Amino acid sequence: MGAVVGTLTMQTKQRRPSRDKADDDLEMTMVCHRPEGLDQLEAQTNFSKRELQVLYRGFKNECPSGVVNEETFKQIYSQFFPHGDASTYAHYLFNAFDTGHSGSIKFEDFVTALSILLRGTVTEKLQWTFNLYDINRDGYINKEEMTDIVRAIYDMMGKYTYPVLKHDAPKQHVDAFFQKMDKNRDGVVTLDEFILSCQEDENIMRSLQLFENVI
Questions:
Q1: Which of 15, 35, 36, 82 could make a disulfide contact with 40, Cβ separation 3.0–4.6 Å?
Q2: Torsion angle, CA of 8/171/187/183, rounded to 10 degrees?
C-alpha cells in the first residue's frame, strides 16, 4: 500500500511559483486531453482547488499530452525502483488506475485514485487495494492472482532488498495471506473478507494512515 502512494506522490510535491486560475485554464487548453474543470474535480475528490493545480502541473510535466499510456507509466514508475524490475507491478497498477479500460490514464483518473489513497475512508482505500489485487476483476482474489502480485513486488524491490530470498518465499507469503483472509476456506478472498481481515490487522491500519497529509 505504501509503495503505491509514495511513488505516485513524489512527482507532485514540488510547488512552482503561484499563478492565477486563468494561467491554469490556459495550460489545460494546450494539451491533447483537456481535464475536467477544477470546480468539478474539487467536488469529485478530497482535494482543494489549489492542491489540484499543483497535482496537474506535476502530471503535465511528466505527461505533456495530458494522458499516460502503459509504456510511459512503466518508465516513470520504474525510476523509483532502480535495483529491481517494476514492469509487472506497474502493469497491475496501471490497470487499477485505468478504470475505464481505455488503455490510458487521464488526469481525472490519476487524481480520483490519489484522492482515495490519500484522503479516502478506510473502506475506500481497502476496496481500491482489493481491486488492484483482483487482476481478472471477477470480484474475488484467488491464489494465482495473489502469487502474481507477490512475485511482481519481489521483482520490483530487487535482489538488494531480498538478497537471500528463498525460491518458495512467494508461495509462503500467499499461503499466509489466505490463511488469514479466506475466512470460510473456499479458496478465494471476497471483498468483505479482505476488508474485515485488514481492519483486524493493526499494521495494515497504520499503513493506511501514513500518507494522509503527504500533499
A1: 36
A2: -70
Measure the CA dihedral 75/79/81/85, to 10°.
30
pLDDT in tens, 2-32: 444 444 444 444 334 444 555 554 444 444 5
8, 117 contact by CB (below 8 A): yes
84 three-state secondary structure: coil
What domains are defined for the chain?
Answer: 122-214 (1.10.238.10)
The DSSP call for residue 187 is S
Name the helix (H) or strand (E) containing 105.
strand 104-106
Tell me the residue type at 58: G
Residue type for 85, please?
A: D
Q: Using alpha carbons, select from 97, 127, 132 the residue that is nearest to residue 198.
A: 127
DSSP-derived secondary structure letter, 102: S
Q: With 0-12 CB in 10 A as exposed, 13-18 as middle and 19+ as buried, what is 177?
A: buried
Residue 99 neighbours by CB under 8 Å, 6+ apart: 109, 112
Q: What whole-number distance in Å separates Cα of residue 90 and Cα of residue 111? A: 17
pTM: 0.78
